[in-house]
Fold each of these.
Amino acid sequence: MEKVILIKYGELTTKKGNRNFFISTLTRNIEFMLRSFDVRIEKDRVRMYIYTKKEDMNHVCEILQKVFGLHGIVICYKVETKEEKIEEAVLQLVKETLGHTFKVETKRADKRFPIPSMEYSRKIGGIILKNTDLKVDVHEPDFVVHVEIRPEGTFLYTNEVVGAGGYPVGIQGKGLLMLSGGIDSPVAGYLTLKRGVDLECLYFESPPHTSEEAKNKVLKLASIINEYSGHIKVHIVPFTKLQEAIYKNCPPTYMITIMRRMMYRIAEKVARKRNCKIIVNGESIGQVASQTLESMVVINAVTNMPVIRPVACLDKLEIIELANKIGTYETSILPYEDCCTIFLPKHPVIHPELEKCIQAEAEFDYESLIDECVEKIETISSFDREETEIADLL
Ligand code: ATP
Ligand code: MG
């Protein structure tokens, strides 16, 4: 009896016109994520089968749970469509499944099999009753025995694991995520990947005001969201000189607003260079002074590139819940400073005026400092497990 992983595509099956592109992108992503395993993939328009070594099944399933575009994952038995083979596999399957009550659901996609679905479900139910202590419960069974009779064979399974949902990463092109060490931006990154947007990340550091630990924390966060992508890059912007110039030249109350305008300007330049269509960040309406609507308007005024803020309308507790779910929370709350906090004025302006920003910025040659930031970017593009372990040693 052969075991195989069956994958249900879910949402993408509804997008008829693009289905081939969806499926080929998804296949490519799965192949990439499973590159260190010995796997064979078969697919058709509604589902995919993944064959791998028995001992790797569970591990492969774990990885698949982080691949967007999958809605259901099941480990099933695949047998020849012969009654005695099916019945033998059913008994093996129920033996491996926890629970006391069951029901059987048969889908007969291959009409060469002579017994109608309902009748066959009853027959299989009878065999299970006769050979085990299990009881039937058609309303609230502990598990359902699925019998799918298809032209390529019969598939039998009980528990379906819920997939990550969303669209395959990459079908929407690429965005540039402003990734800080906080709670919000990794969650914003996760939500964006989920909609099929591939990401590169941008991190602003201001050594010696910000530490190596702060940077490693961001890289660790990147490595966690990379489990949903596989090929995240982090561009590290040396922001010190520009930040010091802001500190020297701008009124204290406007420092954060202007610093964020500079971040957006740099993000846009990097995004264009890296072929990213949008900027993504973890801003949430009203959370801090720079995230009031007035602040957002004045900060956003420096760019025409769409800025997507996936957590804009979530409460902090909702963001924390997601951070816990994806595993970034524990890292995010490590107490390292961010460049946003080191020059934090006592009373940042909550209702900034655009004119005042423009005036303050006219006091120094920020454009050449921005160019220097972009030129001196350092890019980290490998988050293999080993490297993640290094970040673990923090
Ligand atoms: P977070 O929890 O994500 O750090 P926050 O609530 O602390 O967000 P801010 O510090 O104002 O809010 O930052 C808002 C957003 O700006 C962040 O979510 C992130 O997208 C971006 N950002 C802030 N600091 C940096 C940084 N050092 N490098 C890159 N992006 C940053
Ligand atoms: Mg922050």
Note: Residues 385-394 have pLDDT under 50 and may be disordered.
Amino acid sequence: MTPRSRIIGTGFYVPEKVVTNFDLEKLMDTSDQWIRERTGIVERRFVEPGVGTSDLALEASKNALKNAGTAAEELDFIILATLSPDYCFPGSACLLQTKLGLKKIGALDVRTQCTGFIYALSIADQYIKTGMYNKILVVGAEVHSNALEMSTRGRDISVLFGDGAGAVVVEADESGNGGILSTHLHADGKYARELMGEHPGSIRHPRVTPEMLDSGELNAYMNGRAVFKHAVVRFCEAIEEALKTNNVDIQSVRLIIPHQANVRITEAVAQRFGLTLERVYSNIHKYGNTTAASIPIALAEAVAEGKVKQGDNIVLVAFGSGFTWASALIKW
Ligand code: ACO
């Protein structure tokens, strides 16, 4: 029998430092009301200087391993999704591996931004179904704060993002009682420039110039309206695809856990499926948009809050830079 991948432990970690919308008002021309009404964000967490993505990933991983009752030494492979690695290279999965005290197992970074965790989970699922690995650590982690320009020039981006990490332990399960039922991965690179961090990249010679710093070109760019429009459509398509593939009705889904991009996107998705907001998880008010970390953080919180119970169908769904979009249907 082909094994299924089962999530046997979840965990998350966010830095202690809370930055409220009112704190941002002191740094730029913005307001709590503007941010809250358009995004649902009330506060976010920022790391202290010297803390990198692999440090947050480590704490989330320790929590997930503890929750799974698994020792790090039992892991066969690590997959870490992030758009904010500690270094340009090597990837942060290698750093996480050594911080966990491990020496040899493979460690892979995934670079699909907001959909990174679902892509990473899908990769883990394939390795488990083929029998290549038995236990895999899948992590989403980001440090955004030190890439945000805390001024009026940077406000369209800087009010949206926060730091954090979430992790799951995935194990091969031959009981036939659920697990990851399917994953669905998509991309349309035509829209790459609508949401991007252009520099430092290989296309520009030289990669970084002092002028880039002065002009603000090093900041991420987002066409907010285009992102909003495509996100609502793709979120819904990806959910439909997961339901149809498994012949599952939306009413049999206990909880949808979307990437936490914007509460208005979440509300639009809930409305489209006729769901109350209790059935579409949201914690963006506390953490802002943590990109690849947002789904595993939300999943770990939902599990800890008793909102996901054994036998429940849950859908993970994401949309982000690339554009990429993805979903997963899991029987818990
Ligand atoms: N505070 C106050 N005013 C601001 C801010 C800010 N932080 N940022 C922009 N503004 C101003 C703009 O300068 C503009 O002023 P103007 O009318 O004088 O020119 C005005 O507010 C409206 O700006 P818009 O960009 O048109 O604002 P919009 O209503 O579209 O809201 C937002 C922006 C919230 C980003 C919206 O486009 C949106 O929800 N987009 C979805 C994208 C998203 O959620 N991205 C998250 C990250 S990507 C992801 O995870 C998939």
Note: The two ends are 19 Å apart (CA to CA).
